[in-house]
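Re: the 167-residue chain
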Amino acid sequence: MKVDLVPGITPVSVRSVDETARELGELMDNPREVAEIAHRMAAALVAVVHHPNADPALLFGVVAPTAAPVGPDDAVALRRHLTGVGDIRDVVDGRTPGGCPVVFAERVVTPERLRVGEPFDCQMQAVVADPRRPRIAVFTLSSATGRGWLDLSALFGRMVATVAFDA
């Protein structure tokens, strides 16, 4: 899988936990914990997303096999399944410019569930299917504060649009 890293998305090494933590340490707080999570997930992509109007966010990408190739009808079914589940606020499906089925799901803690002084987060996932082979790429964008969420999610969408699976 290949993605174009749009300006504002800074990838870090996934060669080892120590290298991931070292590079994350230059970009954010608590790098070791994040590095360990990324390696447990077998992340193919770990990046920090920056925007002048936002707090930094984390981006993970994982490629996973599926039982069979995923088609547009499967993407629609996934969107329907996720709509209204838990804290998921919005779910949309479509196709990347390269023709891959994609589903975006956004999870945002609602204002009525927030407590003064307690942390909250915003997450968006994109599931991109390889139309030729039985595999998907799952990307997760996570913001610990939600500040600048619309700007961060726009960068995320621009990057997901560039997904290209190798032949």
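The chain has a mean pLDDT of 84.
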